[in-house]
């Protein structure tokens, strides 16, 4: 009888223990589910400096309308955007050059969202700047400056023997759309560009502003001050003598204000490259429903904020194509 009582008690203890463990596990599951419900939907974006200010502006407005969606954005160059997107580290990469056949072969998914351009820059206090504004610089001379190791003087651009200082050439050290598009304008690739390598758009702008003999290139949003519409203090824009006749003609003169250069881009008066479309890229068609919602908003309502942010909106035909791509990709993904 004593044995049976002990066995009975042991059985009760065993059942209670199992019950406690089950409750604890169930409680843990409920907590995990509760945490999942409480955590905000998230979109992660990294990449091109060129697209960063506009992406931030879009995110701010989108978040006002959809406060439950968190959007994290960081800049680091187009190369980083592509790598982060293809590795799955982020939902979207910001990209600021044409998508190559090799990248397409890897299955990258991409969609255009706006346009801008790269412009050549000079220190605004350079004694040669006033003359250069009148004469401009030809593509062939830019090729000599950026593709040849031979040191060159400002007098080669101005024709004035008094401008005998050497040109200090700056380029980008990071894999980026700006350098690639500038190099493509010159008929080469980024690795062919000569000069002192500087990281990032803000970095190369600061380098030129700090060097009286500096020459560089910048995405428009880092060359022009949105408040004034003029080039940033200390930074000048080098006009391109497109017809190479030794002067800047009225139809080539569109650098004084950001609205002028952006209008020239939209009308194809400014060459492409260095003008280009800006993209979001992903490893494949995005599976995050909030990412798709954000992109659809950008291609519709979000386009009204592009100009005020200092960029060029996509034209109606381009928008139609991008929306068709977004929707057709969605239907293919469902199938």
Characterization of the model:
With 335 residues, the protein is an alpha/beta fold. It folds into two domains: 42-115 and 276-334, 3-Layer(aba) Sandwich (D-Maltodextrin-Binding Protein, domain 2), CATH 3.40.190.10; 117-275, D-Maltodextrin-Binding Protein, domain 2 (3-Layer(aba) Sandwich), CATH 3.40.190.10. It is 44% helix and 17% strand. It contains 13 helices and nine strands. Strands 1, 2, 3, 4, 5, 6, 7, 8 and 9 form a nine-stranded mixed sheet that branches. Strand 5, helix 8 and strand 6 (196-198) form a beta-alpha-beta unit. Helix 12 (289-299) runs antiparallel to helix 13. The model is unreliable at 1-37 (pLDDT under 50).
What brief labels describe this structure?
9 strands, 2 domains, 9-stranded mixed β-sheet, 335 residues, 13 helices, D-Maltodextrin-Binding Protein, domain 2, alpha/beta
Q: Helical percent range?
A: 40-55%
Helix and strand composition category: alpha/beta
Question: What is the residue-mean pLDDT, rounded to a whole number?
Answer: 90
CATH level 4 superfamily of the largest domain: Periplasmic binding protein-like II
- Main sheet summary: 9 strands, mixed
Q: How many alpha or pi helices?
A: 13
Distance between the termini: 69 Å
Order of helices and strands: HEHEHEHEHHHEHEHEHEHEHH
> Rg, please?
28 Å
Number of self-contained structural domains: 2
The CATH class name of the largest domain reads Alpha Beta
- The tally of beta strands, per DSSP, is 9
Topology-level CATH name of the largest domain: D-Maltodextrin-Binding Protein, domain 2
